């Protein structure tokens, strides 16, 4: 497409195998598309099947055979299933997350049976010995199940069982390797390096072309995962960004591309861009009524409006891509890769003019925006629907330099640390920084995953939102959108802020101190709690968090006799998890989850979940909470420090737990 090479090349020296140039991969939509081989490929008593997979849904059918039996698939995030000879076995593997590339390998040996490897490491589940031969003829589908995945480097070698050394070479520390080179030959080998069309070439030399069935839109995509870096979160009240010089591109050819994420808490109308030259130069998003999108370029009669039903979901807490471009006297819109055409203004568009972000300028109604934004691009050049679709890339994004063929003129990536007030122009038009005003708290966050993505009830992060004087903490601001702040007016009860107190990062030290919330913004019926903490003194019963009322108030506390964290559910003390690491020695992260049916379990660091215990959900008519102590009854103060405390309503899935725990570990390097 566009005559561009979407491949990424790299190499390494020192005797290490060069990284594979993966180039493109094939996206399956999870709805109705699949690949069939011209001829079935035998998998007999000795065989090797290898593939790279990136999941959007972990319930898949990866490889199927002519008898309509799924041969290799993933029933859960921690297992790969092999079906052979009338039965199946689930091979346990480390947890697989969405949006990450994995290499899955299945080998078969006539004497010992099947083995499964994830990223070059063999499953500990042992072997499956099954007789029988199957004949592969389909990828990505079986029956009514269609896989929502991206697939690459699918190879089958019949007659040879790859060794552990060969499989490790195929993985090559995540850099990949050519299957023909490592294995000597292949029976089938789809690299998916095409850029369009309805077929894929067989690189085994056997001319077993693959046919693409029901694929639509853009489905050959770059293998490399685009790194968005950080995004920005304006408050929708008075946050604003001002460009050093206004962007002013003539009406002939221009493109405006950006990513947004709204939520149920988004303002009804959000001006993403404004211009000092007049109140009628702006771009806004609206929910609840039409038009959902509007771009005005100078007067009411230049308003390009779009009210299509497909645009109404922009505030659904997911990332969406907006792409506007000039087509003669009109402006066309492409949203999430779908062309919505022109906005039917009365007068002609007058070009792209932007001087400010997050507000409309020169009007009594500023229409301040609290939609999250990322990768804002303004470019002097011809746009197209195809260009928009490639930038969207099914929601994964693509490096804009690859799509435009060069660095776009203006490109605001927001890839700076929280607290920064200058966003540089990463484009080719030279220095034209965006200066931020009025931003407070945490407003620059990681696009790939943030705890906000899962809708916390409150999120306490010691690196931001702490009000302190001489180290004494009087307030700790909630970083969710719910304003569930904690505070302490009594000086003798104020904990201590330490900028480097936990693994070199900020923490709050509790030593017979406590912080108290107001009534929370919503009741807690069931719960998932994450905490990064360290204990300073082994004080039995030291409370991490608890209700403010009741002698038998619900709380999470340290129980020394069993070296464990207890969840007291209001009358039946229930051990949620046993701590595998000593919090007196080093910081640890834990998660506890329970649901309204009374099932609870917990996990420390990267260990497995404990056995479920019978507990009750953290339900209360008075939802005020304390950090560092319990409410009624004798004091049970924490003797330790807390750097993160995140509370979610509802019981998180394993995949959600992995996302949050990995996020915390990436910050604090706990395991």
Low-confidence spans? 1-16, 616-622
Structural class: mainly beta
In DSSP terms (H or I, runs of 4 or more residues), the helix count works out at 5
Helix content: under 10%
Short description:
This protein is mainly beta.
Which helices and strands occur, and which strands form pairs?
Layout lengths: L23 E4 L6 E10 L3 E9 L7 E3 L4 E7 L2 E6 L2 E6 L8 E9 L3 E6 L2 E2 L11 E6 L1 E2 L2 E2 L2 E10 L5 H8 L7 H5 L4 E3 L8 E2 L9 E4 L6 E3 L7 E3 L7 E10 L5 E7 L7 E6 L6 E6 L6 E5 L6 E3 L12 E9 L2 E6 L2 E5 L9 E6 L14 E8 L5 H8 L7 H5 L5 E3 L9 E2 L10 E4 L6 E3 L11 E4 L4 E4 L2 E5 L9 E2 L8 E7 L2 E7 L3 E3 L9 E9 L7 E5 L7 E5 L4 E5 L4 E6 L9 E7 L4 E6 L8 E2 L10 E3 L11 E11 L4 H15 L3
Task: Characterise this structure.
By secondary structure, this protein is mainly beta. It has 3 domains: 24-222, Jelly Rolls, CATH 2.60.120; 230-446, Jelly Rolls, CATH 2.60.120; 451-668, Sandwich (Jelly Rolls), CATH 2.60.120.200. It is built from 5 helices and 51 strands. The chain has a 9-stranded antiparallel β-sheet with strand order 36-37-38-41-50-43-44-45-46, with no helix packed on it. Strands 1, 3, 8, 9, 10, 14, 15 and 18 form an 8-stranded antiparallel β-sheet that branches. Strand 24 and strand 25 form a beta hairpin. The longest helix is centred in the last third of the chain and has 15 residues, at 654-668. The chain is flat. It starts with 23 loop residues before the first strand and ends with a helix.
